[in-house]
Specification:
The complex is a heterodimer of chains A (about 160) and B (about 425). With about 160 residues, chain A is α+β, with helices and mostly antiparallel strands. Chain A contains seven helices and five strands. Chain A folds into two domains: about 5-65, Arc Repressor Mutant, subunit A, CATH 1.10.10.1590; about 75-155, Glutaredoxin (3-Layer(aba) Sandwich). A five-stranded mixed beta sheet of chain A has the order 2-3-1-4-5, covered by helices on one side. In chain A, a hairpin with a 5-residue loop joins strand 2 and strand 3 (about 115-120). With about 425 residues, chain B is α/β, with parallel strands linked by helices. Chain B has three domains: about 10-230, NADH-ubiquinone oxidoreductase 51kDa subunit (Rossmann fold, 3-Layer(aba) Sandwich), CATH 3.40.50; about 240-325, Ubiquitin-like (UB roll), CATH 3.10.20.600; about 330-425, NADH-ubiquinone oxidoreductase 51kDa subunit, iron-sulphur binding domain (de novo design (two linked rop proteins), Up-down Bundle). Helix content of chain B is about 40%, strand content about 10%. Chain B contains 17 helices and nine strands. In chain B, the strands form two sheets. A five-stranded mixed beta sheet of chain B has the order 6-5-9-7-8, sandwiched between helices. Classes of the chains: A alpha+beta (about 160), B alpha/beta (about 425). The complex binds flavin mononucleotide (FMN), iron/sulfur cluster (SF4) and FE2/S2 (inorganic) cluster.
């Protein structure tokens, strides 16, 4: 999907926050990923390059640096389970297993029906409420393994 | 145990994130006081210096002193910035998220006082991309404050103007390092810059910039409202004030607790967090996030302030205690962290890029029973080669220190992973 006029208008406004337009690139990539299919496609890279007056390779180099940007298509709902120390100490592995079981996807993969993408992530800054996972940007904390199927089951 | 609190008081009120509730509770009173008492910018810096406030982002650098590094505005007419570091990604650390989510107006007030003191033109609050709710709360609070004439032009009718902008990161630990943060804010990969030049001379877009942690700035309105002398009644001589201690891992009541600096780690664990879970006993604890060296159970009486934790051979860091009970594997925790630093190294420096990868490989083979004799010594030598001062930023140190500390106190656990030839044959 290509950059829409509505997004371009939004970026015009966004870039007024900064003395140099380029600073808007990362927030803009977030908006693209949210609005244009859940990943940063080659078309988005080219369009953002044109909008920000950069080379496509520069946009690619930025997008590929940040773990929150996906450079290939993934399942519809993103399930991210924290694997770092505070969560690991309180059973993150069981949360990951429960998520694998429910979605049928291994870590770093999408489920066959395309509904879920499952990944392990580093500390999400919710360590005192470990273990935790993030589903489509929303935090779910103080988890028990049994909570996972319920939470994922409620997602439309 | 009772002690005076201030950081989390407002957040206990319903709807504390709204301007109405915050103002009724005294928000922006310190800013008003600064304007009404005609304090000069220099005297605001002086008050923060006098308070002895130290940065809560990990290094514990004196905040007022950092502010005084900004160039003289009469001889340097460049645009001046502050970047508030809300990247909060040090494992174990989750305090800034609560402050932004529950009391965004206090952070805004702190930014405005800092802006006045350093004569800033604009402030950027760099929030890690995953923190959606804290970001949205901050943005809504900013919009409310702007509409009420508190942010932007002619703040509270003082004639002073300053903009505050929210900025969203995209999930990289290294963007919490202050120069990595600035590169990232400029729309680039978060590659830390060699220092010098330091941010005060060459920061965002090459202009004078100060980088401060959320909790550091959050303390500022209280210091200005109640005075540096009041601030010094809490904490210790060299580390005054309260701090937010996030305590996580194997405890009964994990949480973020407001305590005075200098409180004993035992009091935090036993009185506030309810002790070790499941009736077990303590094996090891990280005093201040994953980058600070782990300490054994018999050092639990260490005071939680910068000097005391340093004297104990570790670091105060972000004050986030991570607790391991007697059943925990120190080697496994070392692997979890090695994997993290390997993942987060930006790759510019070979000691860090290669070092973190080898650390992970060696610990991995130890844990999977493939360890070779000499591996523990190899891990020590390798880690010693990663710091100090050998790389552009301190991520390499942060990766090396916890491994060395773990081996220092729990060497036998690492050695036990190495099978003897007889065991292999059997
Ligand atoms: C690898 C690395 C990661 C860091 N991450 C953070 C962070 O997430 N938040 C933070 O405030 N400081 C972080 N810091 C420390 C900052 O570089 C900087 O010292 C701090 O933001 C200064 O603020 P303060 O003086 O108010 O503490 C990090 C440092 C390093 C080396
Ligand atoms: S020490 Fe590591 S993270 Fe820091 S600049 Fe060098 S390679 Fe990058
Ligand atoms: S370790 Fe999982 S949220 Fe911090």
């Amino acid at each position: 999907m290509a950059l829409t006029d509505a997004l371009k208008a939004e970026f015009d406004n966004l870039c007024t926050k900064y003395p140099h337009r380029r600073a808007g690139l990362i927030p803009a990539l977030h908006r693209c990923q949210e609005e244009l299919g859940g990943w940063i496609s080659p078309e988005i890279i080219t369009d953002c390059a044109e909008y920000f007056k950069l080379e496509p390779v520069e946009v690619y180099s930025v997008a590929s640096f940040y773990p929150m940007f996906f450079l290939s298509p993934i399942g519809q709902h993103v399930v991210s389970v924290c694997r770092n120390i505070s969560c690991d100490l309180r059973g993150a592995c069981e949360i990951t297993s429960a998520a694998t079981e429910h979605t049928g996807a291994a870590c770093g993969e999408s489920s066959k029906d395309g509904r879920f993408y499952l990944e392990e992530v580093e500390c999400q800054g919710a360590c005192t409420n470990a273990p935790m996972m993030v589903v489509d940007g929303k935090y779910y904390e103080d988890l028990e393994p049994a909570d996972v199927a319920r939470i994922l089951g409620e997602i439309q | 145990m009772t002690h005076e609190t201030y950081l989390l008081d407002r957040s206990k009120l319903a709807d504390s994130h709204t301007l109405e509730v915050a103002r009724a509770d005294g928000a922006y009173g310190a800013l008003q006081k600064v304007f009404e008492s005609s304090m000069s910018p220099e005297s605001v810096v002086g008050e923060v210096k006098k308070s002895g406030l130290r940065g809560r982002g990990g290094a514990g650098f004196p905040t007022g002193l950092k502010w005084s590094f900004m160039p003289n505005h009469e001889t340097d007419s460049r645009t001046r910035y502050m970047a508030v570091n809300a990247d909060e990604s040090e494992p174990g650390t989750c305090k800034d998220r609560i402050l932004m989510r529950e009391d965004p107006h206090c952070l805004i007030e702190g930014c405005l006082i800092a802006a006045f003191a350093m004569r800033l033109d604009a402030v950027y609050i760099y929030v890690r991309g995953e923190y959606r709710l804290p970001y949205d709360r901050m943005q809504a609070a900013l919009d409310e404050a702007r509409a009420a004439g508190i942010v932007g032009d002619n703040i509270l009718g003082s004639g002073y103007s300053c903009e505050i902008h929210m900025h969203k990161g995209a999930g990289a630990y290294i963007c919490g390092e202050e120069t990595g943060l600035m590169e990232s804010l400029e729309g680039k990969r978060g590659h830390p810059r060699p220092k010098p030049p330091f941010p005060a001379g060459f920061g965002l877009w090459g202009q004078p910039t100060t980088v401060n942690n959320v909790e550091s700035i959050f303390n500022v309105p209280f210091i200005l409202a109640r005075g540096a002398d009041w601030f010094r009644t809490m904490g210790t001589e060299t580390s005054p004030g309260n701090f937010l201690c996030g305590i996580s891992g194997h405890v009964e009541r994990p949480g973020v607790y407001e305590v005075p600096l200098g409180i004993s780690a035992r009091t935090i664990l036993e009185d506030l967090a309810g002790g070790i879970w499941k009736g077990r006993s303590l094996k090891a604890w990280f005093p201040g996030g994953s980058s600070t060296g782990v300490l054994p159970a018999d050092m639990l009486d260490t005071s939680m302030d910068h000097d005391s934790v340093k004297a104990a051979g570790s670091m105060f860091g972000t004050g986030a205690m991570i607790i391991l009970d007697e059943t925990a594997s120190v080697v496994r925790s070392a692997l979890v962290l090695a994997r993290f630093y390997e993942h987060e190294s930006c790759g510019q420096c070979s000691q860090c890029r290669e070092g973190t990868e080898w650390q992970e490989q060696i610990i991995n083979r130890l844990l999977s029973g493939q360890g070779k004799s000499g591996d523990v010594e190899l891990l020590v030598d390798l880690s010693k080669g990663m710091f100090p001062g050998k790389t552009i930023c301190a991520l390499s140190d942060a990766a090396a220190i916890p491994v060395l500390a773990a081996i220092k106190y729990f060497r036998e656990e690492f050695e036990a992973c190495i099978s003897s030839p007889e065991e292999i044959l059997a």
